[in-house]
Amino acid sequence: MNGVSRAPWVGFLSAAAVIGGFLAMTGRLDPVFEEDSRTYLTFDFHSPRAMLGQIRTVGYPLFLAMAGDTDRVPWLQFGIHVMAVAVFLGGLRAAGYSNRTAAWCSVTLLLGRGAVDLARLVTADSLAVSLAIASTGCLVAVTAGPSRRSWWIGLVVCTFLAYQVRPAYLFLIVTWPVVAWVLDVFLLRRGAPRRARWSRVGRIALATIGPFFVFCGVRWAVVGHFGLVSFGGHNLIGIAGQFLDRELVDTLPDDVRPLARAMLRSRVELGHAPAGDFAGMEAMYNPTAWQVAAPSAASVYGEDVVAANRGLSRLALAVLRRRPAAYARWLVGNANHARRQLLTLIVFDKGTGALLIVFLAGMAVSLVANRSVRRTDAGIPATRAPRDVGRLETHLLFWTALLFAAAKTSLVLLVEPANDRYMTGAAVLIPAAIAAAAAGRTRTDEGRT
Predict the structure, then answer these.
(1) 32 phi and psi, to 5 degrees?
(2) What distances in angstroms separate CA 421 from CA 151, 170, 416, one per listed residue?
(3) Contact, 8 vs 92, CB < 8 A?
(4) I need a labelling partner for 210 at 20 to 30 A (CA). Which of 9, 82, 246, 326 fits?
(5) Which residues contact residue 196 at a Cβ distance below 8 angstroms, ignoring those fewer than 6 apart?
(6) Which residues, given as ranges, of the chain have pLDDT below 70?
(7) Cβ of 24: how many Cβ atoms within 10 Å?
(8) 258: Cβ–Cβ under 8 A, 6 or more apart, which residues?
(9) How far apart are CA 178 and CA 400, in angstroms?
(10) What does the alpha-carbon distance between residue 449 and residue 429 come to, in Å, rounded to a whole number?
């Protein structure tokens, strides 16, 4: 990795070319269609009301329309991932990271699931992961580096596009101001006046939250719903719908009772039995949401997607208020599931694996080199001890990645199962944080490069 650290952009682009070539030769840039690919490919662009009134945000369908042929989609998604990680690398350098550490972190992200496993899928996952990585690069540059306008623009645009491509990244608009505050108070500006710190955090909050409220205002004017997309009810009903029974239906508000009864009838017709544990509930999540709830909502509300989602949301919340213990058991089980998924994703991430190999090789070289080190009479090496990596490189990316993962995981726990597809987005930055630590651990007394 020494060549990479001395010339980070050359090494970075070389690594990207090697990884891209490997993916192409192994067929990993051939398009793969998932169950929800159809909802992106059949998106209705005929009018603003049609575009803003569907269960999908416009970001990924627009990307597919611009791509044209779906055979190009994996190539474009990999290319965008490389550009996003390049923004991340630039952000780390602007924040004060050395060439060496920034290169290690960035090459590690090139090997992440966003490119290696998800780029071939015709779904929003890979593109959203890439945009989140680029948004992170802009955030650390804005927070720790000089406040250049280009990084601020990048922060606004990348954050907005991330949740427009995949609404699950909406957590960024709250997470980034919190991350900025934590880093300012404990790392970057500990001695700064409180007013100055809050002013900076306020600007970041305005940059991330402001565009969201503007968009929601436009959507409210067009379709009559203040929110990012008419989809939240479909997520939550996959959990709450499994708690429905005839006794509960009689206690529900009048406006959601017809929908609840339709769901019970549908569940009986399909032969779905209530799950007895978390594993069973996870298996029944998608069938409950898409085989039971969605058709039932269509039978009650017709083709009005906004009204159907509103009805599903009201029903789900009414059920959860009446079954808090059952929902609490779901949260406990889902939290345990998230813990296992995060650990698995981090340990088996290809970037983490590459880091382990490089780290072991570095330790072996260091061990051999120590045999030739001149010693004093007391047997202590006369060479100077390696310079410490420094607080910035040690803490900045670590706490950013940790808070990012915690926020994403918290959102997932509440509304959907914490499977590997959803948790990939939570774990995406952690291998880069590990890379920063590994780069510091193998640093010599050559100084910053």
Answers:
(1) -125, 130
(2) 29, 17, 11
(3) no
(4) 82
(5) 189
(6) 1-7, 359, 362-390, 440-449
(7) 14
(8) 300
(9) 10
(10) 23
Provide the token pair at 443. Answer: 């640093």
Asked if 238 and 289 touch (Cβ cutoff 8 Å), the reply is: yes
pLDDT at residue 373 in the model: 45
Confirm if 138 and 155 have CB atoms less than 8 A apart. yes
Q: Which of 121, 2, 5 is nearest to 63 (CA)?
A: 121
Query: Cα-flanking dihedrals φ and ψ of residue 381, to 5°?
Result: -55, 140
| Neighbour count for residue 368 (Cβ, 10 Å) | 9
Q: How far is CA 126 from CA 35, 165, 210, 287, 433, in A?
A: 16, 10, 25, 25, 20
First-to-last C-alpha distance (Å) of the chain: 13
Strand partners, 381: 375
Phi, psi of 225 (to 5 degrees): -135, 125
Angle between helices 232-240 and 305-322 (to 10 degrees): 40
Tokens for 357, please give them: 């190999």
- In 287-323, alpha helices (H): 294-301, 305-322
8 A C-beta contact, residue 132 and residue 162:
yes
Nearest one of 344, 351, 313, 324 to 229, comparing CA atoms: 313
Q: Tell me the residue type at 260.
A: A
Any idea which residue has 């169950």 for tokens? 35
pLDDT for res 9: 85
Q: How far apart are CA 122 and CA 124, in angstroms?
A: 7
Query: Residue for token digits 């992440």?
Result: 112
Geometric angle at alpha carbon 169, from 180 and 348, rounded to 5°: 95
Dist. CA 108–CA 386, nearest whole Å: 24
Which residues make beta-bridge pairs with 32?
121
Contact between 144 and 186 under an 8 Å Cβ cutoff? The reply is: no
